[in-house]
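On to my pick:
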Amino acid sequence: MNTQSKIYVAGHQGMVGSAIIRALKSAGYANIVTRTRAELDLTSQADVRAFYESEKPDVAIIAAARVGGIHANHTYPAEFLYENLAIAQNTIHQAYRSKVGRLLFLGSTCIYPKFAEQPIKESSLLTASLEPTNEAYAIAKIAGLKLCQFYRQQYGVSFHSAMPTNLYGPGDNYHPENSHVLPALIRRFHEARQSGAPEVVIWGTGKPLREFLHADDAAAGILHLLRLENPPDWVNLGSGQEISIGDLAGLIKQVVGYRGEISLDPSKPDGTPRKLTDTSLLQSTGWSPSLTIESGLALTYASFLAELAEGRLRA
């Protein structure tokens, strides 16, 4: 991939996609192709085929997906499986038909077994059962990963995948029920501070351990992978650091400036007890993230306030 390459970014309006656009432009890539959801339905095979045949991109980055937290995954499993499976098969297969030279598919670390040995290596894929609360989403992402692997194996195309850990940053989804844990907590603490609420209630026991990566770090890692001549079929894209949900809530409380109490609701599900990725394969290619969780949270809350003030908050 060079700065003259024509690059299609699917999902450019989402948190990860917009971070990829920022990273591409910052690195001098100007020939970037995007389509909004209204302009291109990625679940339609015919529409995606027509798009690729018309635009003929050199590179495709598939960051589009239907995403959400535990509540959304548990409530809408059929939609999460159908839509994400359709997006994966259409964007990957039609890229192959249209002779796209390079494709990177973004999955998720939820593809790994619920009780995978920690930290989770890429080789643990399909060795045991998935976490039930996000099984539908994970199955669709595994299918996309395997499509890339098998097209590469069978046809020699440079199709490969990255499995981001829990991402956060500018443009995140702050929906009170359907967002992931970190943006949900930011909104909850912010609103509690604004209203003067005496406490903020956290779902679960607060004990589960999670790994987080700022979206701008993720975008930098993705560009790094696209520049590799022979990247892994799939690679974990994470920070290699973990924090408990309880401690994360404490950090967010400090960043937001909330002065009330934190209480736990153990009647709500915890999800996977621990999910830390082994990032040694990625590090062996010469890349590691630059932001700590503390600095990333400060940047993210600042962007939350800006998006809220400008009426751009995804909620």
User: Anything to note?
Assistant: The mean pLDDT is 95. The longest strand covers residues 158-164. Residues 191 and 293 are 22 Å apart (CA to CA). The domain at 7-309 is CATH 3.40.50.720 (Rossmann fold).
